[in-house]
Amino acid sequence: MTEIDIISGFLGAGKTTLIKKLVKEAFAGEQIVLIENEFGEIGIDGGFLQEAGLEITEMNSGCICCSLVGDFSKALGEVMERFHPDRILIEPSGVGKLSDVVRAASAVCGEDCQIGALVALVDASKAKIYVKNFGEFFINQIEHAATIVLSRTDYAGQQKIEDCVKLIREHNQTATIITTPMDELDGKQILKAMEKSDTLRSEE
Asked: How much is the pTM?
């Protein structure tokens, strides 16, 4: 059974940092395929990926969540058929709807795969700016995430963190929110929170 985890968030929110931590500390021994949309983003270091034994399907021709939904489903199906991985990590472009990525991935899933963790990373110091500048795209990520990881909490200050959590709760009452700085958490602890949220979501 292949598990598909989707890790969303805007440019600079910390998706790459989180993925590296999970691969190194939580997914040891698993065969993993990373599908990332490099459009407008800095990709994960190739040397790291080779060492971790990851396979990459790069999509450079636009947003995975809108113009590439059809092609994305096809590419995902090919990845499943070719590699039969234990886990697929999808790192979508920042400006896009998480719901579109979930829909495209669900269309490919049969008996041999399932949608796992739905994660959104949010820069704790920029949440209000995200709402103002990106509106429905940012809110959609919040609404459809089962786990929300706040980044930059070690710099944001307590009041900004509290304001950020309050803002998130206006759009998502049930998601697990991680406010502890990522440097202070082990990848296994983050994975446990992600899997707990996945269980809660499936029982709803």
From this structure: 0.85
Please tell me the distance from the alpha carbon of residue 26 to that of residue 37, in angstroms, as a whole number.
23
Q: Retrieve residue 86's tokens.
A: 């234990």
- Of 27-36, 46-55, 61-70, the range with the lowest mean pLDDT is 61-70
- Amino acid at site 28: A
**pLDDT tens, position by position, 161-179:** 999 999 999 999 999 999 9
